[in-house]
Fold this protein.
Amino acid sequence: MTEALSIKQARKLVLLSQRLPARKQKGTALSATLSAIEHLGYVQMDTISVIQRAHHHTLWNRNPRYQPNHLDALISSKQVFEYWSHAAAYLPMRDFRYSLYKKQAILSGDQSHWYKRNHQVMKEVLSRIEKEGPLMARDFDGDGRKLVAWQHKSAKMALENLYMQGDLMVSSRVNFHKVYDLTERVLPQEVNTTIPTDEEYARYLIFSYLRANGIAQLTEISYLLKGIKPLISLTLKELVANKEVVPVSVKGIEYYSTLETLSLLNRSYQLNKLHILSPFDNLLIQRKRMQSLFDFDYLIECYTPEVKRKFGYFSLPILWNGQLIARMDCKAFKDEARLEIFHLALETKLKKVDDFIFSLKKTLPLFMNFNGCETMVLHKTTLNNKKVATSLK
């Protein structure tokens, strides 16, 4: 029998599963960061740096003690690794074997990546790393000891192909540039390197998604994963039959969950806690899901021509009172230690504006500190596309 959830109950399950707000955790700040990555399953990376990069931002919202050097430390200690989820991401090392499913598909030619393979260049690149140790793409530019001129670009493509098919891993980063090394030199000896079966991989995808997101549709679990939807669909039917997964409905739409997740409905949480989120936060990755569950129509506009932008270059969704209720386009001018909020846009569904502003004022100093800012300037606030007078001081 399918259990019907109210939209309020569905949102509660989603937010508690996403650890928003963050749970109180014992142990070190670094262990709390690792716990967040292991719980979420991945944290998407991004290069945009108008504020702290997305991977730092996402983790900061799950761990108030988070520091940007945590990821380097976890990579160095081999508790986290880089690979592809639906996009470039940091993943927990405990889940390494599940990355082999995609790597094997790429190696066998069942899946393709961006670049065509030049097997000769790939062989030469791999040979250099075997002999010289970890190398960056720029190490293949330069003098005649290295690849000849026409191969320079091919070498960079070869590095990515070798990385995607599993011969290489990212051992570290220098100024956010990848340093590649042989997989066997990066992996801890105790890591399981057996390729998962179809059933194991499907179960991993399903339960990882449900653990981190509370409820899910079939299309959400298989989001941007090529050729996997039929397998997930079949596995879901088996899991429902075995009562390991339970069907639920929200607004007449079928979702899946687990009994453990549904028990979260009995837990209390801080509705009035405010979170300034990254556009690439795990909660927000799937825009259609946010439209359906949170009535939040979000488009990141940094890829939109400036004249067509409605909210700004990099507007940050704001979660408050269990809803996505505003967005804030801003930039951290780190040299001047100043945060400039170009546009604070309030959603029309926001009714308690004064209470929201009060909560935002409490959170902004923490956000400023996270971004290395000491002062703040607010340029414009709008509600329903109309300017409103607002002070955040």
About this structure: The two ends are 52 Å apart (CA to CA).
